[in-house]
Write a structure and sequence with these properties.
With 116 residues, this protein is mainly alpha-helical. Helices cover 41% and strands 9% of the residues.
């Protein structure tokens, strides 16, 4: 048996001054009601991350963050992120920050839907 498939996973990357205020609308457009914000250890303690979480919480979307992201994320980071995603009953990912946070966020979002 040969397995073949087409896979398309759209990624919308938003950036620019004030765009953080669009998080609730972006979640609503994607049907996300309980997002997990994935970022790296360097961004996690910064005011911009706190502001993002405040905006999500004020919109009734919760306040969940995963930041155990190493530079060049690895399988350990992915397993930990998936555990937080699944245990928290999340239904979407906000990948926040630089390359490593974006990379791991996309991996968690993809792997969360895998059954094998």
């Amino acid at each position: 048996m040969t397995l073949t498939a087409n896979w398309s996973y759209p990624n919308a990357i938003r950036f620019g001054a004030g765009r953080i205020a669009e998080l609730p609308d972006a979640c609503a457009a994607a049907g996300i009601r309980k997002p997990l914000l994935v970022t790296d250890k360097g961004l996690a303690p910064l005011p911009i991350t706190a502001k993002a979480l405040d905006i999500l919480e004020a919109a009734g979307l919760g306040r969940a963050v995963f930041s155990e992201v190493d530079p060049n994320p690895n399988e350990k980071n992915l397993d930990a992120g998936l555990a937080v995603y699944r245990e928290g009953g999340h239904d979407g990912v906000i990948a926040f920050g630089g390359g490593s946070g974006l990379d791991l966020g996309k991996m968690v979002a993809f792997m969360a839907g895998q059954t094998r």
